[in-house]
Every structure is written in structure tokens, then in C-alpha cells.
From TrEMBL, chains A, B:
Family affiliation: Belongs to the FAD-binding oxidoreductase/transferase type 4 family.
Keywords: FAD, Flavoprotein, Metal-binding, Mitochondrion, Oxidoreductase, Transit peptide, Zinc
Name the UniProt record assigns to this protein: D-2-hydroxyglutarate dehydrogenase, mitochondrial
Cited InterPro entries: FAD-bd_oxidored_4_C, FAD-bd_PCMH, FAD-bd_PCMH-like_sf, FAD-bd_PCMH_sub1, FAD-bd_PCMH_sub2, FAD-linked_Oxase-like_C, FAD-oxidored/transferase_4, Oxid_FAD_bind_N
Source organism per UniProt: Carlito syrichta (Philippine tarsier)
Length: 540, 540
């Protein structure tokens, strides 16, 4: 039996040594972090592949197996960092070249403790010019580089695989400017999302994205991984909200597209290339981003629906009746509710139903928003789309309702071995795979559950079993990926590709697209020094 | 004296012959088109360069001078279409190879009648496969191709410069699918925006973009030019709302990234490359786009402000108090109001003020929206940010108020020769250039006015004079571009580059960015056959 890693201890505890973190990072999780831990921290272990070779990660004292030993991956013929290289780096960033093995431990391991590199040097530039000098040298010397932000990624994209130089953005944490009329924030890539949130909230704006990992993740990393998160439904993708980027290319060229303009149609929108490219095409050093005004009121409704068709109709109705104030539409099935009640002893706030829906609104008038939600609730109850519902307007009750949705992952982890998938599908087909798998797996699975960001078409598909089983895994994979591909879905909705998913990208990208990805990589990084072994499928 | 082209006749009159238009296009402008004519149709003639060589375009009977004769541009060594080529095209798209000179007249001229090509063949494919076969042949034969949608572009990007083959998307006008829950529309590139609007509005959604040219423009062209338009402030850029594209590359390769997913983080977001690339990197053949729910209520407020600082503060306040229902924030200065009153005899609905602001809201509850606007108005009046204001909730009055803003261009054209610029600036600096130019030009200008989409940081800067004057032009250019560059603004906010602005792109893009643009062009279209002489600055 493969050991079942039940992470009951805050993962924050295992996080990077504070010695190399410039910004304060508490060793105990904050409320926000705990919320994240409760709901999201396991999501990155989406592919059972991560478990396959995971001999033991159940204790924070044990070392994570080296990626090169666990996975079938060959080191590419990059140079090895020499004393001369270190001396050069020391000249570029005096006192900020880290070679102490103890200090290098944390940045070599992903925060899920599933992949581990063996880099021997961490560089901590403060300026774009320093990044440029570093990359110019690495390019000349054919040294591989692993750009690293907050190291909170889910797919092993933020840590080295072999001995890549770790280029940390941690000291690039300055706000460059904030336009208080337009809400446009320009800052260095290493700014921590939560600190930026605080900064703009003091000025009556909010960041257009919010993640459980906000206490650690860097805005540059968010952009590099095209992070989704909790505000996606309302404020959309970073491809729309990021207005400008400054990027250092593989050869050290500084590509300054750091405009603070909502409209700019002067040629190709080059910044788009780097959003979601996971540091493989360039290192993002600064970001210009549009911040929406801070909402004055937040309300949450929790509803029971008699079927998935009614969930979809509720979503349509809700979009029509709540429209501009809708900020989240999450769903969970009856088995999810059973799990959170059984394992976490949470109270079901509405009558038992096959499906439950959580709707959040954010608006500029508490009264109006509550009235809209009230009218909507009355309508969906009268029409039978919803059989029961409750509305929360005070913060405490809102948190209780969100807890039901956010703690599903925690409940799942208490149910047994969990096979996890984070897929994107046309919303109409979102639940079919769950039903399909229940039939396919029969009694071999304890539970097959579906929940997630319905508003974004993002399904968290989870299967629990008494223990890990290769035969169950083989029944699941590649079936789930093939099924997703058949619906033209995405095998990675929001977590990206990184190292772990690079060989399943082909389920969502056609050969011509994969070829163009490789061509773009070859154009922008001909020596392949930037974040190697990531994002692009390994070429046979 | 260079003749002053005062286009009093509907420009639609000059538009393409209905014989080669599949979809109905009235020869008389619709109400929408008239609204556009009133406010936008001149905006494309942003650079006086377009006027410089414009000998006479004041009558629809006169021929537009050939671009190759008017501008200093050399034909690149592409092949010339042969009889064998025509036979090949005829095999690929039987009966849809147009060589009749009369039928070719309209698609050779831009709708502003400022540029004219001399193409001898127009191809009208219906399917992506046909586009692919055509481009494969053109690529092999080194034949240049000018992709053409509705030919409503403002910068001469949609018509040939020499004898490029015109590849029209007019017959690619089928809706492929519509997801009624998520509001995701998938359609061919040649669908006319207005028809798509009608299609989705019947299903309680709206298109995320709206343009005056919607009666003619194609969605593929909108995406290829990254069209802005009237809904930009609310629904953002096409980089955020376009979910997928199908594109045929220069060599005929079909790049199918036509997903209907809100979230997809499986590698590089390749579709972004083609949004705004004006047909120079590939031909968009199909589009997947996210449609927002149809708002139930629209309200408009028209306000007078004592200064530009107050305009900005009103904008900030408005974002805070109206937040999610704000759908337009337009401004105009006192000289604009003088012009529309003097030349068009429109009534000023509020007391005389140095600045005027038009605010539109769109929401899901008429009562709530009106109440929010009422509260906001009370607040800005009490605080002195606004000295007078009026609120319209019925359609007739809304149109009257919009008319004041939309008919400024018409009023300007009646004031004399107009020097026009469409620039994007940080909103805080938006009006400085107007003040600067008033001082700089002194009595040589009749009026220097500023108005535009303040919410998007998009300024329409206009200078009127008794007649065209080279010395006045030399005072304006490159000063306006240099000034814009100094503020890190954009010399083309929403109209793109096309042919007319390709040599001023350098004011908004740094050399490293221009170089990467050229590299991307070389990667995707190594022979340069796609829309040559456009978008990229001519290389010395």
C-alpha cells in the first residue's frame, strides 16, 4: 500500500525558511491561509502521478525525494555553475548570492512537498537591471535558470528539477506607482499579493484577483501562471486586467511594455505572450494591473437544488437577476455535503438536496444587493429551481456558508486516498463526468464527487478510495483526460502545467498549437535556459 | 490650399457594392450608423498625413488616389497572380473568385476613402479548410494576401496597398454554437457584429463589444484589430472576453484554439497573439467569445464640472458609488459644447461649465440604478464637484444627452479644417495636452478641444483651423506624438496601426518591443505574405 499522506499539519509550517524571505511570512497560518489550507492546498496534487512516487511525505522532518530520482527526466546539457559564475553574480548583486545548503533547502522544494530540485545557488536581485545582467551572463554561459516567486504553485513549476539557478523575485517588492483615479497599480514582480491588496484597499480599490495563497504568492508569479482564483468570475482573466509588463528575456534584453493604459493598439500585444507562460519565455520583473473599486457590500446565499439541470437554470437566472453584482457561483453535490457533515461535523444550512449552490454578490449598495438577492431567491424558490435556501449578510454567517464549500477538500482527505482532477469543461457538460465515473468505478470508489467554480466552468473532480490502487488509477487515467479532451475541455483549468502536467497538455492542445508553443520557446529562449523541463511537453 | 473634405453625405453611401456582400447592408445608414457617422466616422482620419495627399475626396463620384501613388511605399517582390493561380482558386472555391473590375472597386478602397489598392482578385471562402487551401497555395507561390472583414477600419489596414489578393470573410457568417447557460458564442469570423448582437440578445445576452460600425464590421475583424468601442469600460478588452480562436497561418496550417472555456491554463495562450495583430500573423476564421447578460436598465446623467480636477474626482466618486453598474464615463470641454451648440444648434441641458461629463449605467434593476445615480448626483452636487446635472431614464432623453457627446466630431467638421488625434494617456494627464496645445498654437488654431472616453483614458484631441496649413501641421507633429510618448501614452488608443500609423508606432513601442514584433512576424509569416505594409514599421 502506498502510504496515504493526510496532511493534518499546516503546510505553512513546511514553508520556506524565513531567513531567505525578505517579507514577513508567519510560520503559523493566518485565518486566510487556514481557509486556503482547508479548501485548496491539496488541489495541486491533482495528478495521482504525484503520489505514485511519493514514498513518504507524511512528516515535515522527512526529505522529499529528489525529482530527478522520482521521475523519468534527463538533465539537459546546461553548464554547471562554477566559482567564476558565482563571482560574477556576486559582482552583480553583492551579498545576495545564496549558496548555503540550509538556506537552499526550502526554495528547492515545492510547498506541496512533491517535487525537489538540487540547486546550489539562489540569486536575489532587487532591480530589473540586475535581472538583466544575471540572465545575460546565464545565457552566455548556458546556465539554466528557475525563476521563483512565492513558490506556491501547484504543478511543480516553481522549483528546479536539477541544479537550475534559482532566481528569486522576493526582493523586487516595491510599488512603483498607483493611479488613484484609474485604479492602475504598477509594481515590481515580487510584491506579495496580500500586501498589494492591503495597499490598494487603503485607497478604495481591490486587486482583481484573490487567492488563498495571497499571503505568500508574488504578483509576478500570479501573472506568469495566469492565476485564476476567487475573483475570476467577476473580474475575469489576467489577460484582461494586466495592462502592462516588464519582462527580461533569456538573453538579458529588457522588454519594457509597462504601460498604464487601458487602450493601446500600437501593434502586437506582446505582454500577452508572458501571461501564463510560467517563466519559460521571460522573467516578469514588473506588472501594471487594473484594480476595480472596492465593493461596499458582500452577501452570500446557500441554496439546495433538485438536480444539475436546475443548478444550471439557477445559474442562468442568477446571471440575469443579479448580473453585475454576482461575484461567485459555486456548486457542490450531495456527496460533498455528506463528507463535510460526516468528517467535519458541519451543519447543513438547508434541507437535504442532490445539489447545493453558493452565490456571492459584491456591490456598491448593501440594501440594493440584499433586495436583488431576496427577489432572486423568491423567484427560484417559486419556480422550483431551488427547494430551500438561506441568505447571509453578516460576516460571520457568510464565513460559515463559505466554509461548507471551502472545506470539501479537507473532508475528502479524511475519507481515504483521494484522486484529484482540476478540469475545465463547457458548463453544460460539467457534471457528466462525475455521473460517468460513478458507473465506471462502481463499488471500487468510496465516493465520486463533483464541486467547484461552476461560474467559471471549473470542476474539481475527486474520487476517494480506501487506499491507493494502481488498477483504480488506470481506470481513471487516461480516461478522465480523454473524456475532458472529447468535450474540448482543459486538463488544467487554473493550476497550469509546470513540471507535473507537461505531458498531458496534449489532451487540451492540438499538435499545431503544441508546435507553435515550441516555436515560440525557440524564438524567445533559443538555448532553453528559462525554467527548463516545464510547461512544454517533452519532445520524443 | 489643400481642399477641406467636409463629408456631409453618409459615408455608407460610398460603401461596398451590395453585389459582393452576402449579408444585407443597407445603402442608407441605420439609426446606429448615423449615430456612428455623427461621432466616430472621422476619428480614423486621425493623422493629418491622410489629408496631406488627399487631393479630393469630397464627392463620391471622384476616385480615391491609389495608395501607391500617394504614399512613399515600394511594392515588395511578391508574385503576380497568374491565370494558373486563378484556376487553382476556382478549384478551391468554385464560383467565388471575383475578378470583375467593377466588383473589385469597393473592396479596394477603405470606407473613409483615404487609401486605395489595385487588387485584381477577391476570394470568398466559406470554410476554414478553403482558407487553408488558399493560403497554402499563396504561400507556395509567394502571393501577398489582404484579409478583409467588413472593411470598416480607420487606419487603412483592411484594403490592399498594391495588388494583394483580397481574402474576404463575408461568406464565413455562420454561428457555430451558443451556450445558453454560460453565454459563450462560437461563430465564424465573417459574422456581422450587429447580427451577432441580435442573435445573443434574443437569448438574453449582449455582445461584450459594441461599435458604431456594427452594421458592417465582422467579428473576425473586430478581434484582429482588437476593437474597443462603447462597452470597453464595462466589459474590458477582447483579450479578456475572447475565449478561443481558430486561425489559419500563412502557410495554410489551421491553428485550432477554439475552446469555449473560461479557464484553460494548458500552456501558452496562443490566441492572444492574433488579437490586435491586424491579419499580419494569421487569418482568424472563427471566434469563441463570452457574452455578458443583457442589462435590464440603462440610465444616463449629464453633468457640468468646474474644472478637470473635478472631472477626475467625479470619476473616482462615480466608480465608488456606482461601481458595478457604471457602463460609460465620457467627458467634453466647454469648447466642444460651444461647437455643438453653434454648429448643430443643440441645447445645453445644464448650466455653462468648463467641463461636462456623461455617465451611463447599465444594470439589472431600473429602480436600484436610478436610486444609485440619484444618490451619486446629490453627493457630487453637494460637494461641489459638479455644479449642475440632469438625469435621464427614458430612451428619448438618453439619446438627446448622448447626442451632445456623439455629435462633437460632426460639429468639428463644420468648424473648419480638423487635425485629429486618438490617443491614450494616463487619465490624470489626459487633458494637459489640450491646455499645452492652446498655448502652443495660440490664434493659429480656431479651437483646440478635448473629449473622449475618460473612463478608458482615451482622448480625442482635435484642432480646428480655417484651412489646412503645413506649418500648423509641423507645429502639431511630431509634437503630439512626442508628448504622448513622454507620458508613456499610446499614439493609437483603439484604431490600431494598419497602413497609416505604422511609422508612428515607435512613439509608443520601445525598440526591443518593435524587434520582437518583427521576430514574431518572421516566425509566423516568414515570407511576409499576410497583410504586407501594415502594422509593423517599415524597416529602414
Amino acid at each position: 500500500m502506498v502510504p496515504h499522506w493526510v496532511p493534518r499539519w499546516p503546510v505553512w509550517f513546511f514553508l520556506a525558511s524565513p531567513r531567505w524571505r525578505q517579507t514577513a511570512c508567519t510560520l503559523r497560518p493566518s485565518v486566510e491561509q487556514r481557509r486556503w489550507l482547508g479548501s485548496r492546498w491539496l488541489a495541486g496534487v491533482a495528478s495521482p502521478l504525484a503520489y505514485r512516487g511519493c514514498s513518504s511525505a507524511s512528516s515535515h522532518t522527512s526529505k522529499v525525494t529528489l525529482t530527478k530520482d522520482r521521475y523519468p527526466v534527463q538533465r539537459l546539457p546546461f553548464s554547471v555553475v562554477s566559482e567564476e559564475d558565482l563571482a560574477t553574480f556576486e559582482r552583480i548583486i553583492p551579498g545576495r548570492v545564496i549558496t548555503d545548503p540550509e538556506e537552499l533547502e526550502a526554495p528547492n522544494v515545492d510547498w506541496l512537498r512533491t517535487v525537489r530540485g538540487c540547486s546550489k545557488v539562489l540569486l536575489r536581485p532587487r532591480t530589473t537591471e540586475e535581472v538583466s545582467c544575471i540572465l545575460r551572463h546565464c545565457h552566455e554561459r548556458n546556465l539554466a535558470v528557475n525563476p521563483q516567486g512565492g513558490n506556491t504553485g501547484m504543478v511543480g513549476g516553481s522549483v528546479p528539477i536539477f541544479d537550475e539557478i534559482i532566481l528569486s523575485t522576493a526582493l523586487m517588492n516595491q510599488v512603483i506607482s498607483f493611479y488613484s483615479v484609474s485604479g492602475i497599480l504598477v509594481c515590481q514582480a515580487g510584491c506579495i499579493l496580500e500586501e498589494l491588496s492591503r495597499y490598494v484597499e487603503e485607497r478604495n480599490f481591490i486587486m482583481p484577483l484573490d487567492l488563498g495563497a495571497k499571503g505568500s504568492c508574488h504578483i509576478g508569479g500570479n501573472v506568469a501562471t495566469n492565476a485564476g482564483g476567487l475573483r475570476f468570475l467577476r473580474y475575469g482573466s489576467l489577460h484582461g486586467t494586466v495592462l502592462g509588463l516588464e519582462v527580461v528575456l533569456a538573453d538579458g534584453t529588457i522588454l519594457n511594455c509597462l504601460t498604464s493604459l487601458r487602450k493601446d493598439n500600437t501593434g502586437y500585444d506582446l505582454k500577452q505572450l508572458f501571461i501564463g507562460s510560467e517563466g519559460t519565455l521571460g522573467v516578469i520583473t514588473a506588472v501594471s494591473i487594473l484594480c476595480p473599486p472596492k465593493p461596499k457590500a458582500v452577501n452570500v446565499a446557500f441554496l439546495g437544488c433538485p438536480g444539475f439541470a436546475e443548478v444550471l437554470q439557477t445559474f442562468s437566472t442568477c446571471k440575469g437577476m443579479l448580473g453585475e453584482i454576482l461575484s461567485a457561483f459555486e456548486f457542490m453535490d450531495a456527496e460533498c455535503m455528506w463528507l463535510v457533515r460526516h468528517h467535519l461535523h458541519l451543519t447543513r444550512p438547508v434541507q437535504e438536496s442532490p445539489f447545493y449552490v453558493l452565490i456571492e454578490t459584491s456591490g456598491s449598495s448593501a440594501g440594493h444587493d440584499a433586495e436583488k438577492l431576496g427577489n432572486f431567491l423568491e423567484h427560484v424558490l417559486d419556480s422550483g429551481l431551488v427547494t430551500d435556501g438561506t441568505l447571509a449578510t453578516d460576516e460571520r454567517k457568510i464565513k460559515v456558508l463559505w466554509g461548507l464549500r471551502e472545506r470539501i477538500t479537507e473532508a475528502l482527505s479524511l475519507d481515504g486516498y483521494v484522486y484529484k482532477y482540476d478540469i475545465s469543461l463547457p458548463v453544460e457538460q460539467l457534471y457528466d463526468i462525475v455521473t460517468d465515473l460513478r458507473i465506471r468505478l462502481g463499488p471500487r470508489a468510496k465516493h465520486v464527487v463533483g464541486y467547484g467554480h461552476l461560474g467559471d466552468g471549473n470542476l474539481h473532480l475527486n474520487v476517494t478510495a480506501e487506499a491507493f490502487s494502481t488498477s483504480l488509477l488506470d481506470t481513471l487515467e487516461p480516461h478522465v483526460y480523454e473524456w475532458t479532451a472529447k468535450q474540448r475541455g482543459s486538463v488544467s483549468a487554473e493550476h497550469g502545467v509546470g513540471f507535473k502536467k507537461r505531458n498531458v497538455v496534449g489532451y487540451s492542445k492540438l499538435p499545431a498549437a503544441l508546435q507553435l508553443m515550441h516555436q515560440l520557446k525557440a524564438l524567445l529562449d533559443p538555448k532553453g535556459i528559462l525554467n527548463p523541463y516545464k510547461t512544454l511537453p517533452s519532445q520524443a
